[in-house]
Amino acid sequence: MVRRGTRTAGGRRTARTDVAGSARRLRIGRLLLVVALVLTGTKLIMVQGFDAQDLAAAAAQQRFTNDAIPAERGSFTDRSGNVLAFSSEARQLYATPTRLADEQDKAHAEDPSEPTSDQYKREIARFITKTLGNRVAEQDVLAALFSKSTYTTIGPLIEPALARTITEKYPQIGEEYRATREYPAGENGANVLGGARWSQDARKIEGRLGLESSMDKLLAGTDGKKVSDTAMGSDLVIPGTERELEPAVPGSDVELTLDSDLQYMVQNKLSDYARKAGARSAGAVVLDAHTGEVYALANDKSFDPNSPSWGPDGLGNPAVTNPFEPGSVNKVITAAGAIEDGLLRPETVLQVPGSIKVADRTVRDAWSHGTVPLTFTGVLGKSSNVGTLMTAQRLGEDRFNDLVHKFGLGETTGIGLPGESAGFVPPRKDWSGSTFANLPIGQGLSMTVLQMASMYQAIANDGVRVPPRVIAAETGPDGERVERPRPEGVRVVNPETAHTVKDMLRAVVQEEPQQGTGADAALEGYQISGKTGTAQQIDPTCKCYSNSTYWITFAGIVPADNPRFVVGLMLDAPKSGTPESKSSAPLFHDIADYLTLRYRIPLSPNPAPGQVLQVK
């Protein structure tokens, strides 16, 4: 079919369908325009209204960065106020080389009298090198400034005043807060203190070992807040734009019970003695006889917490973490129980054979003998295994077990040092017939050097064991000093029993009329009480007690007539062939001698009376 058209004024035809289509397209266009305007308006409302806060925050985030202001870490001091650990404020210089170059080239283009970026960088490098002296080489500064990186550090950590001198003259150089941890005494007491290091992630000093770790929260304080301008399109802080929003609150200072001079002496004497004895390791503890305060706690191996790298040797604290079988120092438990219960007196004579059978176990003394008449004092003085087991059988297993726990064995002391071991005491229900052949003579159970010293502290302190402590007080950011409460004492035996046992233990160090096993511990002019110990170690090849590898121990009280200090010592697997490998009594003598001089302990009014160990 042929469509008819209309003519225009010029004689051209215009199809009716073109007019209709144009009208329809116009209506569709208007509709689309309305929809677009509605959508745009809606978006505008969302942006200006509902999303305004989020978008503003996002924009601010592009312009600013919030950072923490690390709080000053608290210090450690000894009992006399000598600083053992403290934090110093430092600065790390940094630059944004590419940004610095762009800005300086732009400045030079606008004002040719301004130096080029290369000239400016060399000028900065010369000034930094001159300011820092020989702590940084100019070539190293130039290498940092001419690098193509967006961020680079410059030189070592420096004092804030030096950093300020540089950044005030050249604002294009920034400074970042750092803190360094300083240990003036180096290795002295490091096993107790531990160590702390700057953490780049946390941007503050963090405790890594020892008390630095376990007391980290108290020492760290509370960080403050600051805001800095950030370069657009990056997270780089523009130097000189930092503003403080909230100040930091410093951490607390901690006062320890340690005597740093005594600690130094004990640590060095112990290390030297262990080396001469060929011991695998060694530990020593000095306690106040009445308060349980730790005056020294040492291991033969230590580390320097100031060193850039630690260990692995010497990082731990074996004196509180590594238990051992104590040997004959454990005989004090049986002696205290027998005196307390009225079973024996010091002068009671026991007919002691050369060996004794307990269940399926035969135990002998360290020296060969037939039946000998030993006083009960002589059983301790000559360290007779047989005489001790004869007495333990009178005491009974249940009573012995009760005393073991009253003396603090099988549980931690609560001193607050990381990784403290409770040692091991077999549960009473698990004892076999032969268990009681081992425990009274210090085999089959284990303790730390700290626990061993704590046992003898109870004897020195009229029968009351005061759990040892190493933290004396804390001083908060407000300057108020708060003493740590003294732990509540545990009554182990009555005062009369403690005095009697302490006097009996003087026989161990006597030379006349009959020599005890620890005569080398004697100190001229002072009454000394103590006990030697030798415990067989397990031979891993046969899973039995070795006849060549031992723990050598000693625990003593100075002076015995008016106790001031208790000393515990342990040598782990000393090699035979040297005097030091046979006994730690001489080491006790040296430490006791130092204690009496340092603390001006008066001489004993009377020498210790000679005690009969074996009757004729």
TrEMBL record:
**What Gene3D superfamilies does this protein's entry cite?**
3.30.450.330, DD-peptidase/beta-lactamase superfamily, Penicillin-binding protein 2a (Domain 2)
Transmembrane segment boundaries: 31-50
Report whether Transmembrane shows up as a keyword of the record.
yes
Domain of life (superkingdom): Bacteria
GO terms of biological process kind: cell division; cell wall organization
Which InterPro entries is this protein grouped with? Beta-lactam/transpept, Beta-lactam/transpept-like, PBP_dimer, PBP_dimer_sf, PCN-bd_Tpept
Annotated protein name in UniProt: Cell division protein FtsI (Penicillin-binding protein 3)
Species, as recorded: Saccharopolyspora gloriosae
